[in-house]
Amino acid sequence: MSTERPIRLLRVALVPGNYRGGMTRTMVLTTNHLREMGFEVDSLYEEDVPSRVSKRIRRFTGPWEAADAAARHIAKHGPYDLIEVHEPLAVGFGMRLRKPRHQHKLIAFSYGIEDRGRRIMLDYGASHGIKTRLKSRLLAMLQAKISYTGLPWCDHIVTSNSEDAQYLVGRGTFRPDQITVHHSGVDPNLLERGQHVSAPRGDVLFMGLWIERKGTLDMVPAIVDFLRANPHRRFTAAGCMIPEDEVLRAFPTDLLPRITVRSKIESDEELCRLYETHGTLVLPSFHEGQPLVLIEAAAFGMAILTTATCGMLDFVDHEKNGLLIPVGSTPAILEGLNRYENSPETAWAFGQEARRKVLTHTWRLSAKNLASAYRRLLD
After folding, report:
1. What is the spatial distance between Cα 288 and Cα 290, in angstroms, rounded to a whole number?
2. Per-residue confidence band for 102, with pLDDT thresholds at 50, 70 and 90
3. Please, are residues 83 and 97 in contact by the beta-carbon 8 Å criterion?
């Protein structure tokens, strides 16, 4: 590959380009560094891909709509060396932008392998006695299969955790040399702000969508018992993306004065204040990529309590910089919360160790990892 011109990269994902979501932030912040490293990068977001169907139907039409939008963009701006697409879109790009007419390398970027996530969801539902309608199961299976069908079209895949990489190798979809494990980064402004946190805090923070996949069914009863045993403590659920009253309905009325819900986080200042004023991050998800909130909380020295799976395993060393608990266990969540409450020196030590580790998880290093993989792919 000649170095006489920049490497041209087109990145495509059907998410809002508003910098608020974890996927958008990953794209924007790694793009900034990729440009410094000699890449010419363009991005297409949800608003750049016109559609006439509802959001629910777009889950199935999106791959082809995004591929059509990319084809129009390429016709206008010229060919790219690399096209990186969100994993669920790969099938549309593989079929629409066929080779050899288009000479680019196609890369799938996964924030949690869809097919693996569906299987984990089924296992979780069975273990918790959750009955899912046949229609919902079939639609989930169809969506996951469409996503997985697109992967063989790709020359390379970026996964957000080691477990997803092992899953793809184990199923024979990719060789190890065709996979790059990406890690989330932390914004330098947040890293600098976190330096000034100098005292232990005790209140509990959950940050993420208020959905079953994030472990909310397991977390709520543990939070209820924890708050009743510790009347001086508070709990905050932030970034839930549903109305406040829908979250509060999960809790007994006598505890509502000590529960705060922030449906949306509108600014980095608000984000920093949440990390600064809470001591424990509880994240009991059963399927993730590598949650950005995990890395950001570590930058503020928060005590991390999370499940031993996915990207959490790649960052948290149990009993060193956080606590790892089994998936789906309310007693384990409560035990972890009590451990930090009864031993604030442990919570503080784990938080400081997490902050030291997050220094290796900057966006610059994340982008450098991608740049190296993409250059090898072109070579």
Report:
1. 6
2. low
3. yes
